[in-house]
Amino acid sequence: MTGRPGGRPLVPAYLSTGGVARPSRPHLERLSVLTGSGESAPEDLTAAQLALLDVLEDGSLTVVEAAALLRLPVSAVRVLTAALLDRGLVLARAPIPTADRFEPDLLKRVADGLRALKH
Length: 119
Prior knowledge:
Elements: H1 13-16, E1 33-36, H2 47-55, E2 61-62, H3 63-70, H4 74-86, E3 90-93, H5 104-118
Antiparallel strand pairs: 1-2, 1-3
Helix pairs in contact: 3-4
């Protein structure tokens, strides 16, 4: 896609998804981790789908990272990813949950216990 002086692509994002507005798999989140399945790409894929497979060739990326590399909205990448998931060309897993915060009191007791062992 050739860009405008402002950096925006000339082709609207919805055209990269073939006009599809919603992903077939609504569970895909912005931080879902995507990995290529290793299957060879069929010839009937769109240019945007091929570009997504290409960025996943070097390893795993989140949906947001892939969107940034492809310079597409996250919603468009979710649609592209869902289509590739349906064809078995991409694997996706849920985002890694953030760890629960430790209680400051627990950390203080651990530190006190370690100091007691030291003496």
